[in-house]
Amino acid sequence: MTEPIAADVVIIGGGTAGCSTALHLRRRGATVVLLERGVCGGQASGVNYGGVRQQGRDLAELPLARRSREMWGRLADIVGSDCEFVASGHIKLARSDADMAELESYQAAVRPYGLALELLGRDELRARYPFLGDAAVGGSLCAEDGAANPRLVAPAFARAARAAGADIREHAPVTMLERDGARFRLRTTNGIEVSAATLVNVAGAWGHEVAARFGESVPEDVVAPNMCVTEPVPFFMVPNFGVCGGGVYVRQIRRGNVIFGGARGIADRARLRAYPIAMSSLNSCRQTIELIPRLRSAQIIRSWTGIEGVMPDDLPVIGPSRTTPGLFHAFGFSGHGFQLGPAMGAVLAELILNGATSTPIAAFDIGRFAPALHTRQSNPA
Amino acid sequence: MNDEPPIVVGAGPAGCRAAATLVAAGLAPIVIDEAPQSGGQIYRRVPAGFTRTYRALYGFDAAKARRQHDTFDTIKASIDYRPNTLVWDLKPGVLHCLSDGRSEALAYREVILAPGARDRIIPFPGWTLPGIYTLGGAQIALKYQGCAIGGRIVFMGTGPLLYLVAYQYAKAGAGVAAVLDTSSFATTRRAVPGLLRGGSTFAKGLWYVAALRARGVIVANGIRPVAAEEKDAAVSAFLYRDAAGNQHRLACDAIAFGFGLSSETQLADLAEIPFAFDPLQQQFLPERDITGRTPVRGVYLAGDGSGIAGADAAELAGERAALALLEDRGHAVDKRRLAALERALQRIAGFRLALEAAFPFPVDMAAGIADETILCRCEGVTVGEFCREARALDADEINRAKAFSRCGMGRCQGRVCGPAAAAVLAAKLNLPPERMGRLRVQPPVKPIPMAVLSDD
Amino acid sequence: METTLFRRLCETDRPVIRFVLDGRDCEALAGDTLLTALLTNGQRLRSSEFDDGSRAGFCLMGACQDCWVDLDDGTRLRACTSFIAEGLRIVTRSVKGAL
């Protein structure tokens, strides 16, 4: 019944981060088993808005986001498909002078990281995007940001990882997880038994459960981004739009469907189910029409949501375990992990195989949630 | 004491009968229906100003239609009737209705879902051409609008509706070129003993065939569609193979086709009723028992929306579900009536077995559809594209296949392409269709305007 | 050569409704759905977004969502479940890029 597998690395979680880690490890010769409870990309990686965005991130995330953006640009080389990534540009709209000031200071703050943002005043905004409603007084454009099709990305990484020799098991929830001497031992509901020297915890909204098994309790909550999509509408909107303060974000794919969100659905982490909420969808419709009045004659045909892990400071948990050698975490991407997924795999592979990564990740150290117990200083980003 | 009015969704035979039963017990249900008038599809009421008699409109079912309409007209003053209203989302305890551009959240303790069914199709090359409709659609054009879908029409598919609609068209003076049944004559004949238990239904079927032949209409069994030809942006001919394998070409300007019906199960799905694959009907259906009760407290199912059984069964099921609701509320109900209803439902179930055996859904057709044929007409995804995109990322069930290929992501959310897509994928993987699972419903269950107003 | 898809077989004694279809004055009968009105005056309802074809509806019962048409003010109506009304201005050829 049990099928023991010995590997260098076992990965829990088949989202983009997990599948990218599997691929990068395999490319460097490590043996890899990935265990995914459902199907690869079935949770946060597959249900999100699809924004591939550097602009708007906490500065601490920028090195990781920049590294990932470089990979998005050559995704076809990495996984055999561009996953419909388009650098269509991302515009964050200001609806007040205070918003505009915020955009200006962010533009200055990110320049040292190599991120070039273009500020647009009211007139320039209207000239370029005449379909915007009256509320927008200006905006900040990141020309190299864009969007991709979230449903395709993790499965594409999974396929590439498999082709490279990774052993990826779907429908394989982990029921037993323990450390036995220098190795981790895991068992799944369908009788797979794995032992590995290294364990990667990329279990998304359930990452805190894995961490807790090794004495690292972190306050991971969940959020369900309520997404809506319209029927195909004649194409008119090239960049993706968001607003200062959040609340609504909207993009249009070349086929014409307009995708938007900004409100919350229901995430039932225990039952592994998530539901959009009628009122959230209708509120998002209202906000989207306000932003782009011509959409008032469009119709929505579908809404959805998923379960995303959220940390109290909106920053992910990334890095080695504080308690357990050989355990590495990357979870809790707080609703903005999609763009980071590809680079997460590269970073984790470096951490595991080199002992260090070239990308600054100290700000995401799991130790920040138990400062009384862990005295190690975070390096400035 | 529960004061909240129960809600009935659907004003076809099942919903109407359910509402009438509740009214008779002193309740004042809310009855929500998408259509402007009651009757569902089979007893669809014509718009004001139409003058055909019930006999002309409903044929053998004229008396039943009259009774349905009279019943509903009688109870209208006692119910909260919401026509032209779409239930677009549902969560346990509340449903969201859209009417006249405004969405309202309606709380419920009990709801009887009777949303009916739609035609079930398998694509063939050219099926999206102007002039090609479902059998149900062709029937609505005639019954509801007094129109024929064309001047020289081919009827194709299988099931009793095929013969009924073709006959109705012929009787109304439309040009009926042929009635082509994919079920073989041998299959149908084997089912005769069971069909005879269906009372007059089988006799009617034979009568229709005889009447059609008498008018010179080609009636053939065991056929397989080959393609619809196009001329000037509309259908101009239909190619098919007969039971012996010979190809024929029929000039025509319209085609009506269908292979039985699919239940509208979206609201039952949102109500979190568990589903199971029904091998007889070849579809996933929400679980209910003969009383109409489901595993979800307060949610009842009646009519074709939870399994195809026809209009007579729908009326019985509607009454039975309403009585179950009343029983569950603590009302006294007539036990003999319950038993009589259940006996009648069981009798019809036996007949349905024979009907499905006589006119099986031709799943085998799915394996042979040409790659260039459109599979998802909303999104323009061909059979070839569907298979390629689904398999490129190792999809082995229908929701994954949808995510990778876009098939089922369009306005109709898989109503038209769903059964065929599952059959195509199953054939590709050499697995039975039920292993493909079923499309997960995502609200709104039909398109709704972005500019919807709401009170919240 | 026929230039309409649908043929009226009966129920023709109804008041005439005048409407505009792609800029052309047309007539229908009170009680016609938009679908009937359009297909007794032509052979299409709209263009398919993703192939070269025209579409003319399919199920006639509000299930397939194939028959959505535009009024010239941008309002969208499902043709098989909406009734024709005096003075409606319907377009079946949407201009690419316009909404």
Structural features, described:
The complex is a heterotrimer of chains A (381), B (456) and C (99). Chain A is an alpha+beta fold and 381 residues long. Chain A contains 10 helices and 22 strands. Chain A is globular. Chain B has 3 domains: 7-117 and 262-355, FAD/NAD(P)-binding domain; 121-259, 3-Layer(bba) Sandwich (FAD/NAD(P)-binding domain); 363-436, Arc Repressor Mutant, subunit A (Orthogonal Bundle). Chain B has helices at 13-24, 54-58, 62-75, 135-145, 160-171, 185-190, 192-196, 200-214, 266-270, 310-328, 335-358, 383-392, 398-405, 418-429; strands at residues 7-9, 30-32, 80-82, 86-91, 94-99, 102-107, 111-113, 117-119, 132-134, 147-148, 153-158, 176-181, 218-220, 224-231, 234-241, 247-251, 254-259, 261-263, 275-278, 283-286, 299-301, 374-376, 381-382, 448-449, 453-454. In chain B, the strands form 7 sheets. Chain B has a 5-stranded parallel sheet with strand order 3-2-1-7-21, with helices on one face. A 5-stranded parallel sheet of chain B has the order 9-17-11-12-13. In chain B, helix 5 links the parallel strand 11 and strand 12 (176-181). The longest helix of chain B has 24 residues, at 335-358. Chain B starts with 6 loop residues before the first strand and ends with a strand. In chain C, the strands form 2 sheets. In chain C, strands 3-2-8-6-7 form a 5-stranded mixed sheet. A two-stranded antiparallel ribbon of chain C has the order 4-5. In chain C, a hairpin with a 4-residue loop joins strand 6 and strand 7 (76-78). Chain C is mainly beta and 99 residues long. Chains in contact: A-B, A-C, B-C. The A-B interface holds A 39, 46, 81, 151-152, 155-156, 159, 230-231, 275-276, 278-279, 281-282, 285, 288-289, 295-304 and B 88-89, 91, 96, 103, 105, 392-394, 400, 403-404, 409-411, 413, 442-444, 447-452, 454, 456. Strand 10 (147-148) of chain B pairs antiparallel with strand 1 (7-8) of chain C, so a sheet runs across the interface.
